[in-house]
Amino acid sequence: MMAMAFDWLNKFHHEMEKEPDYAEKTLAAYRLGMRAKGSIVGVTIQRAENCCDAVRQLAENKIYHPDEAPRLPLPECSQGRRCGCVYRPVMTYEQTKKG
Ligand SMILES: [Zn+2]
């Protein structure tokens, strides 16, 4: 029963449209985070399971500076603002763990 509820939530989340300024707002927040504490080293793009080919062309797990990250949704994304791909902050401890 719980699993079904979570499925529904996930589905709902992925079907929500992004705000037109999603990329600007999110990247600006991470940029501030980098300046404030130094624990954020950059952002990665977390692909949605069922998302477009455009995002699959990007290097997986690449760490971008917020100023240089591709804007989401990607212009070529077939799902437009329903694109489920999101930015995820990369913390310093994660980076050192990966080597
Ligand atoms: Zn997409």
Give an overview in words:
This protein is of the alpha+beta class. Helices cover 41% and strands 13% of the residues. It contains 4 helices and 2 strands. The chain has a two-stranded antiparallel ribbon. The chain is globular. The termini are far apart. The model has no long low-confidence stretch (mean pLDDT 83). Zinc ion binds at residues 51-52, 54-55, 73-74, 77, 79, 83, 85. The site of zinc ion has 10 residues, from helix 3.
* Helix share bin: 40-55%
Radius of gyration: 15 Å
- Average per-residue pLDDT, rounded, comes to 83
Structural class: alpha+beta
Low-confidence stretches: none
End-to-end separation in angstroms reads 40 Å
Hetero compounds: zinc ion
H/E element order: HHEHEH
Q: How many E-type strands?
A: 2
